[in-house]
Amino acid sequence: DTGVSQNPRHKITKRGQNVTFRCDPISEHNRLYWYRQTLGQGPEFLTYFQNEAQLEKSRLLSDRFSAERPKGSFSTLEIQRTEQGDSAMYLCASSLSGADGYTFGSGTRLTVV
Amino acid sequence: GDSVTQMEGPVTLSEEAFLTINCTYTATGYPSLFWYVQYPGEGLQLLLKATKADDKGSNKGFEATYRKETTSFHLEKGSVQVSDSAVYFCASSSSNTGKLIFGQGTTLQVKP
Questions:
Q1: From A89, which residue of chain B is nearest by alpha-carbon distance?
Q2: Burial class (CB in 10 A: 0-12, 13-18, 19+), A100
Q3: Nearest Cβ partner of A106 from B42, B49, B101?
Q4: Interface A:B, Cβ pairs < 8 A
């Protein structure tokens, strides 16, 4: 068990570019969550997968955001046409039993310039 | 919708002082409640949890009691240490998906 791994740790991109983040959950965890955290705020829920099915999406997840979890293993979060307001820490978490058993990754910090 | 409100920080204490960080929630039904901690440069870690009314969660000297009548889950520690300096997040979950609703976080700074 190597925990939840997120890559890259940091990403700086120019406004308008596309970015993709990867999350590798704990292997036996069938639930995977994405959250976004801005400075001075708590994490905000973005989306949830159970195995490969995306079962819930927040209103925060605009059309520019897309997430996938092919084969129920790793997940990717893509942001198209990035905007400065997308600058944040993007957190991934996995769980076997819902809220009781979360393990968070260290996050990917996105800076849009 | 569901929400979590924490006392604003930063909270600055001397070592061995008593700590209280207030947390209240609004939810439909009976959520599970959590405290997470984020040490500088690290990811979120679960500190403690409680799943039903009157449950007390505890870990590393920290405690919190699930109070349904006041919809609160205040975090307490009798004697803080410099190593407790971190950001503390209160969270609730009343969804069968396991989605967490977080408060805004409270920064604790403990001085020697």
A1: B43
A2: middle
A3: B42
A4: 62
